[in-house]
Design brief:
6-stranded parallel beta sheet, 5-stranded mixed beta sheet, 11 strands
């Protein structure tokens, strides 16, 4: 497919996605790969449709594939065929392609977080981790941690049922992993190696931080799934306390590279793509 020919039609379903850089990433990947590409933002509330109706519109509307973001990743898993047993186990999907046989689901948050973590920490083990938020991105990251030397996981979520569901899913795949649940972060300070924010707290429109700065002390590393803005209060506090910080941009970038390959069937030059995105967004160059 060459520029000027039939476009690779892609989109993103989610709430509060007005500042998402996903359209920029995928149209840039298309330009670098020689594929004419369009990428639409699809907000069910603005379209006055449910998630299922929005998904059906994409299925019937000539889209090759779509990304799914907050808060619909778990809903998307109900509507697709999932080949990867790990993705089936986590029950959350962020990438869908529409095949003649039906929609197929993938989770590039899972692979993208592994790449982001390795880029910042190499082969150092994740250790004892506190993760705030047990939703769609939290599920993907929790399962990724099983591949990154996780020693124990504390899941913090006001929705205890959701946290318990994630704990059960993790135990089904790795029965020896220690998983505990709490409704707040009061027991965190000095007791964990890694801190992860998988809530929208801190992103544009959801100001604040998921934990006070004094509870960051004593940890070694911190990751924030939020990437708009890049420099969240949570990561500023972590950096001020001497932690290695992993920006949500790194997850965004690596999951996007993986999603692009699924959508297009071909790789993109990741170095050139990062450079092009940096010129447009002012994000981190390495």
């Amino acid at each position: 497919m060459a520029p000027g020919g039939p476009a690779l039609r892609l989109g993103l379903i989610g709430d509060n996605i007005g500042q998402s850089k996903a359209p920029l990433l995928h149209t840039t990947a298309g330009r670098l790969s020689g594929l004419a590409t369009t990428y639409d933002r699809l907000v069910p509330g603005e379209l006055k449709t449910s998630f299922d109706q929005t998904f059906a519109l994409c299925l019937a509307g000539g889209y090759r594939g779509i990304n799914i973001t907050y808060p619909y990743k778990e809903e998307a898993a109900r509507l697709v065929e999932i080949d990867d047993p790990t993705v089936r186990a986590m029950g959350a999907v962020n990438t869908v392609i529409f095949e003649p046989t039906g929609p197929k689901g993938y989770n590039t948050d899972y692979s993208g977080f592994i790449a982001a973590y390795r880029g910042a920490r190499g082969n150092l083990p994740a250790g004892r981790v506190c993760m705030i938020g047990a939703g769609g991105v939290g599920k993907a990251i929790a399962f990724a941690l099983l591949n990154l030397g996780l020693e124990s996981l504390l899941i913090v979520d006001l929705n205890v049922a959701k946290a318990e569901d994630l704990a059960a899913r993790l135990h089904a795949l790795s029965s020896e992993t220690s998983v505990t649940i709490a409704e707040d972060t009061s027991a965190v300070a000095g007791n964990v190696d890694g801190l992860i924010n998988c809530t929208p707290v801190g992103m544009v429109g959801y100001d604040g931080t998921p934990m006070p700065r004094e509870r960051v002390k004593g940890a070694e590393w911190a990751f924030d799934a939020v990437y708009t803005p890049l420099d969240t209060q949570f990561l500023r506090d972590a950096a001020a306390e001497g932690l290695t910080v992993i920006s949500g941009f790194e997850l965004f970038f690596h999951q996007g590279v993986d999603a692009w390959q699924i959508f297009s069937g071909q790789p993109v030059d990741a170095v050139r793509l990062r450079s092009a995105l940096m010129e447009s967004t002012g994000g981190p160059k390495s």
